[in-house]
Amino acid sequence: MGIILAIILFGFIVIFHELGHFLMARLNGIEVEEFALGMGPLLVSKEYKGTRYCIRALPIGGACMMGEDDEATGEEGNFHSKPVWARIMVIAGGPVFNFILAFVLAVILTAMVGYDPPIVGNISPGSPAEEAGVKAGDEIVEMGNKKINIFREISAYNQFHPGETVDVTYERDGERHTVSITPEYDKELKYYFLGLSREPNKKAGFLTALQYGAYEVKYWICVTASGLKMLLTGQVGLDQVSGPVGIVDMVDDAYHSSVDYGISMIVANMMNMAILLSANLGVMNLLPIPALDGGRLVFLLVEAVRRKKVAPEKEGYVHFIGFALLMALMVFVLYNDIRRLFL
Which residues are catalytic? Predict the structure, then answer.
Protein backbone atom coordinates (compact mmCIF):
# COMPACT_ATOMS: atom_id res chain seq x y z
CA MET A 1 0.00 0.00 0.00
CA GLY A 2 2.91 2.33 0.74
CA ILE A 3 4.13 2.08 -2.86
CA ILE A 4 0.71 3.00 -4.26
CA LEU A 5 0.24 5.94 -1.89
CA ALA A 6 3.79 7.18 -2.49
CA ILE A 7 3.29 7.08 -6.27
CA ILE A 8 0.00 8.97 -5.95
CA LEU A 9 1.49 11.57 -3.59
CA PHE A 10 4.70 12.08 -5.53
CA GLY A 11 2.88 12.10 -8.87
CA PHE A 12 0.44 14.75 -7.65
CA ILE A 13 3.26 16.94 -6.29
CA VAL A 14 5.31 16.62 -9.49
CA ILE A 15 2.30 17.39 -11.68
CA PHE A 16 1.63 20.53 -9.64
CA HIS A 17 5.29 21.54 -10.00
CA GLU A 18 5.20 21.10 -13.77
CA LEU A 19 1.82 22.85 -13.87
CA GLY A 20 3.58 25.93 -12.51
CA HIS A 21 6.01 25.88 -15.45
CA PHE A 22 3.14 25.14 -17.87
CA LEU A 23 0.84 27.96 -16.75
CA MET A 24 3.64 30.53 -16.63
CA ALA A 25 4.72 29.46 -20.13
CA ARG A 26 1.19 29.84 -21.48
CA LEU A 27 0.81 33.17 -19.67
CA ASN A 28 3.90 34.46 -21.48
CA GLY A 29 2.93 33.07 -24.88
CA ILE A 30 5.48 30.23 -24.88
CA GLU A 31 4.55 27.04 -26.69
CA VAL A 32 4.72 23.84 -24.63
CA GLU A 33 5.72 20.81 -26.69
CA GLU A 34 5.15 18.16 -24.02
CA PHE A 35 3.63 17.95 -20.55
CA ALA A 36 4.56 14.63 -18.95
CA LEU A 37 4.14 12.74 -15.71
CA GLY A 38 6.99 10.31 -15.13
CA MET A 39 10.16 9.58 -17.05
CA GLY A 40 11.36 6.89 -19.42
CA PRO A 41 9.31 4.90 -21.96
CA LEU A 42 6.03 6.40 -23.12
CA LEU A 43 2.86 4.67 -21.90
CA VAL A 44 0.04 6.99 -22.94
CA SER A 45 -0.06 10.26 -24.87
CA LYS A 46 -2.62 12.61 -26.35
CA GLU A 47 -2.05 15.81 -28.29
CA TYR A 48 -4.26 18.81 -27.61
CA LYS A 49 -3.80 22.31 -28.99
CA GLY A 50 -0.18 21.73 -29.92
CA THR A 51 0.88 20.12 -26.62
CA ARG A 52 1.43 16.39 -26.16
CA TYR A 53 0.21 15.21 -22.73
CA CYS A 54 2.02 12.04 -21.63
CA ILE A 55 2.29 9.43 -18.93
CA ARG A 56 5.67 7.71 -18.85
CA ALA A 57 6.72 4.44 -17.24
CA LEU A 58 8.92 5.59 -14.34
CA PRO A 59 6.95 7.55 -11.68
CA ILE A 60 9.97 9.50 -10.45
CA GLY A 61 9.55 12.90 -12.05
CA GLY A 62 7.90 14.84 -14.82
CA ALA A 63 8.57 17.35 -17.57
CA CYS A 64 7.23 20.49 -19.19
CA MET A 65 9.12 20.68 -22.50
CA MET A 66 9.16 24.18 -24.00
CA GLY A 67 11.88 23.82 -26.61
CA GLU A 68 14.60 25.37 -24.44
CA ASP A 69 17.23 23.59 -26.54
CA ASP A 70 15.91 25.12 -29.75
CA GLU A 71 18.08 28.08 -30.74
CA ALA A 72 15.56 29.46 -33.28
CA THR A 73 14.94 32.43 -31.04
CA GLY A 74 13.22 34.46 -33.69
CA GLU A 75 10.20 32.17 -33.87
CA GLU A 76 7.08 33.33 -32.07
CA GLY A 77 6.29 31.14 -29.07
CA ASN A 78 9.90 30.01 -28.67
CA PHE A 79 11.21 30.03 -25.08
CA HIS A 80 14.38 31.94 -26.03
CA SER A 81 12.47 34.61 -27.95
CA LYS A 82 10.86 35.94 -24.76
CA PRO A 83 12.30 38.63 -22.46
CA VAL A 84 14.52 37.37 -19.65
CA TRP A 85 12.00 38.24 -16.92
CA ALA A 86 9.33 36.18 -18.70
CA ARG A 87 11.70 33.21 -18.78
CA ILE A 88 12.51 33.72 -15.09
CA MET A 89 8.76 33.57 -14.33
CA VAL A 90 8.46 30.30 -16.23
CA ILE A 91 11.42 28.60 -14.53
CA ALA A 92 10.47 29.89 -11.05
CA GLY A 93 6.85 28.82 -11.57
CA GLY A 94 7.52 25.18 -10.63
CA PRO A 95 9.03 25.74 -7.17
CA VAL A 96 6.58 28.57 -6.42
CA PHE A 97 3.66 26.24 -7.19
CA ASN A 98 5.15 23.67 -4.80
CA PHE A 99 5.03 26.25 -2.02
CA ILE A 100 1.47 27.20 -3.01
CA LEU A 101 0.41 23.53 -2.90
CA ALA A 102 2.10 23.07 0.49
CA PHE A 103 0.29 26.15 1.82
CA VAL A 104 -3.15 25.07 0.57
CA LEU A 105 -2.73 21.58 2.05
CA ALA A 106 -1.39 23.05 5.31
CA VAL A 107 -4.44 25.31 5.65
CA ILE A 108 -6.78 22.35 5.08
CA LEU A 109 -4.83 20.15 7.51
CA THR A 110 -4.80 22.88 10.18
CA ALA A 111 -8.56 23.30 9.80
CA MET A 112 -8.92 19.51 10.23
CA VAL A 113 -6.64 18.77 13.16
CA GLY A 114 -5.93 22.17 14.73
CA TYR A 115 -2.60 23.85 15.44
CA ASP A 116 0.14 23.66 18.05
CA PRO A 117 0.92 27.10 19.51
CA PRO A 118 4.31 27.32 21.27
CA ILE A 119 2.73 27.26 24.74
CA VAL A 120 4.36 25.07 27.37
CA GLY A 121 2.02 22.33 28.60
CA ASN A 122 4.22 20.65 31.21
CA ILE A 123 7.75 20.96 32.58
CA SER A 124 9.76 17.86 33.47
CA PRO A 125 10.88 18.06 37.13
CA GLY A 126 14.57 18.91 37.45
CA SER A 127 14.89 19.58 33.71
CA PRO A 128 17.02 22.40 32.23
CA ALA A 129 13.85 24.37 31.40
CA GLU A 130 12.54 24.16 34.99
CA GLU A 131 15.89 25.18 36.42
CA ALA A 132 15.87 28.21 34.10
CA GLY A 133 12.50 29.30 35.51
CA VAL A 134 10.20 28.36 32.60
CA LYS A 135 6.70 27.33 33.75
CA ALA A 136 3.64 25.64 32.27
CA GLY A 137 1.52 28.17 30.37
CA ASP A 138 4.50 30.22 29.19
CA GLU A 139 4.55 31.03 25.48
CA ILE A 140 7.92 30.52 23.80
CA VAL A 141 8.37 33.34 21.31
CA GLU A 142 12.05 33.13 20.37
CA MET A 143 14.99 30.73 20.50
CA GLY A 144 18.49 31.74 19.50
CA ASN A 145 17.19 34.85 17.65
CA LYS A 146 14.76 32.65 15.72
CA LYS A 147 11.06 33.53 15.88
CA ILE A 148 8.96 30.61 17.18
CA ASN A 149 5.42 30.27 15.82
CA ILE A 150 4.55 26.61 16.45
CA PHE A 151 5.70 24.21 19.17
CA ARG A 152 7.45 21.85 16.72
CA GLU A 153 9.92 24.63 15.95
CA ILE A 154 11.20 24.27 19.53
CA SER A 155 11.94 20.59 18.98
CA ALA A 156 13.42 21.29 15.55
CA TYR A 157 15.76 23.95 16.93
CA ASN A 158 16.92 21.57 19.65
CA GLN A 159 17.45 18.83 17.05
CA PHE A 160 19.55 20.99 14.73
CA HIS A 161 21.57 22.55 17.59
CA PRO A 162 22.20 19.52 19.83
CA GLY A 163 23.72 20.36 23.19
CA GLU A 164 24.08 24.07 22.43
CA THR A 165 23.19 26.63 25.10
CA VAL A 166 20.34 28.73 23.72
CA ASP A 167 18.72 32.01 24.73
CA VAL A 168 14.98 31.37 25.10
CA THR A 169 12.50 34.23 25.21
CA TYR A 170 9.08 33.46 26.66
CA GLU A 171 6.01 35.51 27.45
CA ARG A 172 4.16 35.30 30.78
CA ASP A 173 1.29 37.58 31.83
CA GLY A 174 2.09 39.97 28.98
CA GLU A 175 5.75 40.33 29.95
CA ARG A 176 8.73 38.88 28.12
CA HIS A 177 11.64 37.16 29.82
CA THR A 178 14.85 35.76 28.34
CA VAL A 179 16.83 32.90 29.90
CA SER A 180 19.76 30.75 28.80
CA ILE A 181 19.13 27.00 28.74
CA THR A 182 21.66 24.22 28.13
CA PRO A 183 19.96 20.98 26.96
CA GLU A 184 20.66 17.84 28.98
CA TYR A 185 21.69 14.58 27.33
CA ASP A 186 19.52 11.50 27.88
CA LYS A 187 21.79 8.46 27.59
CA GLU A 188 18.90 6.02 27.12
CA LEU A 189 17.14 7.99 24.39
CA LYS A 190 20.44 9.39 23.04
CA TYR A 191 18.84 12.79 22.74
CA TYR A 192 19.37 16.29 24.15
CA PHE A 193 16.23 17.56 25.85
CA LEU A 194 15.00 20.83 27.36
CA GLY A 195 12.18 19.33 29.43
CA LEU A 196 9.26 21.04 27.66
CA SER A 197 6.06 19.40 26.46
CA ARG A 198 3.25 21.05 24.52
CA GLU A 199 -0.45 21.54 25.07
CA PRO A 200 -3.03 19.62 22.96
CA ASN A 201 -3.80 21.08 19.54
CA LYS A 202 -6.15 24.05 19.47
CA LYS A 203 -9.10 24.25 17.08
CA ALA A 204 -8.55 26.61 14.16
CA GLY A 205 -11.02 28.97 12.52
CA PHE A 206 -10.63 30.12 8.92
CA LEU A 207 -8.24 33.01 9.56
CA THR A 208 -6.27 31.02 12.13
CA ALA A 209 -5.97 28.14 9.63
CA LEU A 210 -4.53 30.56 7.07
CA GLN A 211 -2.08 31.95 9.63
CA TYR A 212 -0.89 28.62 10.98
CA GLY A 213 -0.93 27.04 7.51
CA ALA A 214 1.72 29.61 6.58
CA TYR A 215 3.65 28.78 9.76
CA GLU A 216 3.48 25.09 8.82
CA VAL A 217 5.03 25.72 5.40
CA LYS A 218 7.67 27.96 6.97
CA TYR A 219 8.48 25.16 9.43
CA TRP A 220 9.10 22.57 6.69
CA ILE A 221 11.11 25.02 4.57
CA CYS A 222 13.32 25.78 7.59
CA VAL A 223 13.69 22.08 8.43
CA THR A 224 14.77 21.36 4.84
CA ALA A 225 17.23 24.29 4.83
CA SER A 226 18.67 23.26 8.21
CA GLY A 227 19.07 19.67 7.01
CA LEU A 228 20.95 20.89 3.92
CA LYS A 229 23.17 23.06 6.11
CA MET A 230 24.04 20.06 8.29
CA LEU A 231 24.77 18.03 5.16
CA LEU A 232 27.09 20.69 3.74
CA THR A 233 28.91 21.16 7.06
CA GLY A 234 29.41 17.42 7.54
CA GLN A 235 27.14 17.11 10.57
CA VAL A 236 25.03 14.67 8.54
CA GLY A 237 26.48 12.16 6.07
CA LEU A 238 25.19 11.38 2.59
CA ASP A 239 24.36 7.89 3.86
CA GLN A 240 21.55 9.48 5.91
CA VAL A 241 19.88 11.08 2.87
CA SER A 242 16.72 9.36 1.59
CA GLY A 243 15.51 9.04 -2.00
CA PRO A 244 12.45 7.51 -3.68
CA VAL A 245 12.73 4.17 -1.86
CA GLY A 246 13.11 5.95 1.48
CA ILE A 247 10.08 8.09 0.70
CA VAL A 248 8.02 4.98 -0.07
CA ASP A 249 9.12 3.51 3.26
CA MET A 250 8.16 6.74 5.10
CA VAL A 251 4.73 6.83 3.44
CA ASP A 252 4.18 3.15 4.24
CA ASP A 253 5.11 3.71 7.90
CA ALA A 254 2.77 6.72 8.08
CA TYR A 255 -0.05 4.66 6.59
CA HIS A 256 0.37 1.69 8.94
CA SER A 257 0.70 3.93 12.01
CA SER A 258 -2.65 5.58 11.23
CA VAL A 259 -4.71 2.79 9.64
CA ASP A 260 -6.14 1.64 13.00
CA TYR A 261 -7.46 5.15 13.70
CA GLY A 262 -9.64 5.41 10.62
CA ILE A 263 -9.70 7.14 7.27
CA SER A 264 -9.52 10.67 8.70
CA MET A 265 -6.18 9.91 10.36
CA ILE A 266 -4.84 8.31 7.17
CA VAL A 267 -5.85 11.41 5.17
CA ALA A 268 -4.28 13.73 7.75
CA ASN A 269 -0.98 11.81 7.75
CA MET A 270 -0.87 11.65 3.94
CA MET A 271 -1.55 15.38 3.73
CA ASN A 272 1.26 16.01 6.22
CA MET A 273 3.59 13.92 4.07
CA ALA A 274 2.48 15.84 0.97
CA ILE A 275 3.20 19.18 2.67
CA LEU A 276 6.66 17.97 3.68
CA LEU A 277 7.47 16.63 0.19
CA SER A 278 6.08 19.63 -1.67
CA ALA A 279 7.96 22.16 0.47
CA ASN A 280 11.09 20.01 0.21
CA LEU A 281 10.81 19.80 -3.59
CA GLY A 282 10.33 23.57 -3.80
CA VAL A 283 13.46 24.26 -1.75
CA MET A 284 15.59 21.65 -3.53
CA ASN A 285 14.63 22.96 -6.97
CA LEU A 286 15.64 26.50 -6.02
CA LEU A 287 19.18 25.44 -5.10
CA PRO A 288 21.71 27.01 -7.51
CA ILE A 289 22.72 23.62 -8.86
CA PRO A 290 23.11 23.08 -12.63
CA ALA A 291 20.25 21.12 -14.22
CA LEU A 292 17.82 22.17 -11.46
CA ASP A 293 15.47 25.14 -11.74
CA GLY A 294 17.74 27.09 -9.38
CA GLY A 295 20.73 26.53 -11.63
CA ARG A 296 18.80 27.73 -14.66
CA LEU A 297 17.63 30.79 -12.71
CA VAL A 298 21.26 31.67 -11.96
CA PHE A 299 22.04 31.86 -15.67
CA LEU A 300 18.89 33.93 -16.32
CA LEU A 301 19.74 36.35 -13.49
CA VAL A 302 23.28 36.71 -14.87
CA GLU A 303 21.72 37.49 -18.25
CA ALA A 304 19.40 40.06 -16.66
CA VAL A 305 22.36 41.81 -15.00
CA ARG A 306 24.69 41.63 -18.04
CA ARG A 307 21.87 42.25 -20.52
CA LYS A 308 23.50 39.59 -22.61
CA LYS A 309 22.82 35.86 -22.85
CA VAL A 310 25.35 33.33 -21.67
CA ALA A 311 26.58 31.30 -24.64
CA PRO A 312 24.07 28.41 -25.04
CA GLU A 313 26.83 25.82 -25.53
CA LYS A 314 28.54 26.89 -22.29
CA GLU A 315 25.30 26.82 -20.32
CA GLY A 316 24.38 23.46 -21.83
CA TYR A 317 27.77 22.04 -20.86
CA VAL A 318 27.37 23.19 -17.24
CA HIS A 319 23.84 21.73 -17.03
CA PHE A 320 25.04 18.44 -18.54
CA ILE A 321 27.74 18.09 -15.88
CA GLY A 322 25.21 18.99 -13.17
CA PHE A 323 22.74 16.42 -14.50
CA ALA A 324 25.41 13.71 -14.57
CA LEU A 325 26.39 14.47 -10.97
CA LEU A 326 22.73 14.45 -9.88
CA MET A 327 22.20 11.06 -11.52
CA ALA A 328 25.28 9.71 -9.72
CA LEU A 329 23.91 11.09 -6.44
CA MET A 330 20.51 9.49 -7.11
CA VAL A 331 22.17 6.10 -7.70
CA PHE A 332 24.12 6.46 -4.44
CA VAL A 333 21.01 7.48 -2.49
CA LEU A 334 19.00 4.64 -4.05
CA TYR A 335 21.71 2.18 -2.98
CA ASN A 336 21.59 3.52 0.59
CA ASP A 337 17.79 3.32 0.67
CA ILE A 338 17.82 -0.31 -0.42
CA ARG A 339 20.67 -1.15 1.97
CA ARG A 340 18.76 0.34 4.91
CA LEU A 341 15.73 -1.83 4.10
CA PHE A 342 17.76 -4.97 4.78
CA LEU A 343 19.62 -3.78 7.88
Answer: 18
